[in-house]
Amino acid sequence: MKTVYILKLGETFPSTKKKFGDFDTWIIKLLGKSNIKIKTINILNKQGLPNLQSAAGFILTGSHSMVSDELPWSLKIEKYIKKIASKDIPLLGICYGHQLIAKALGGRSSFNKNGKEIGRVKIKRSISSLTDPLFKGFPKEFYAFETHYQSAIKLPTKAVVLASNSKDRHQAVRFTKQIWGVQFHPEFDINIMKEYILHQEETPNKLDLKVNHCTASNQILSNFMSIVEEQELNLPSTNSFRGLPNESDTEEEELPLTFR
Q1: CA-CA distance, 14 to 32, in Å (whole number)?
Q2: Which residues are catalytic?
Q3: 3-115+150-190+216-232 belongs to which CATH class?
């Protein structure tokens, strides 16, 4: 049986890693139970990239690096993304991974003119997401955890926006039939988000750390795994959309404070 490969493009803060694990462990926890093997490839440790014939799917993690710096390892992954795209293998990019996919397929990623986005934010789905399997079961509006300076500034030709907010128009994108990217972090939980706020904000004591759950956004990962399973295990397709909740429905009541 083929493997879902998590291409680990960076590491979290050492103290966070000690308490809660790292990017790949957070992702694996939320992928759900599956008969498909999952393997992490640590790119910064110069682990070799797998043969595409062995791959059922790929997930590109976030990173504390910047896509616009064009680091050697990042440029190498860009070329690999193009190969994945040519083989129609399911691929999901998260934050840095999302931005790198955009760049690799002909778009541009750089600093967001709207500034840094950090904390729990509200995101609205687009009409195009209504039939997209990555958003199966999602409310029209949902909350997600974020921490980023850069964004996918310009999308490749034929890319479709699936979700956005006032800070970033490209919160979720379908780049091709089999390739998706999300700017938010579906792998984060409350504890991880608090860690990032405390590490990155100069005056964290002035921030309300009572961030809430983002259970809908977590579902991105299990939905992606379902897409892979349907293809790899020849399961009956569930790609048809189940239907949205009522137009006014959101994941949960909005909190007074949204971090920026």
Answers
A1: 26
A2: 95, 185, 187
A3: alpha beta
Nearest residue to 94 (alpha-carbon basis) of 2, 3, 18, 7: 7
Domain positions in the chain: 3-115+150-190+216-232
DSSP E strand stretches across 98-251 = 108-111, 117-125, 141-148, 150-154, 160-164, 172-176, 179-182
Q: What is the DSSP string of 12-32?
A: --HHHHHHH--HHHHHHHHH-
Residues 193-249 have pLDDT tens digits of 989 988 876 555 545 556 677 888 999 999 999 999 998 877 655 554 333 333 334
Q: What is the pTM of this model?
A: 0.89
Q: How many CB atoms lie within 10 A of CB 144?
A: 26
Rounded-to-integer distance, Cα 213 and Cα 190, Å:
6
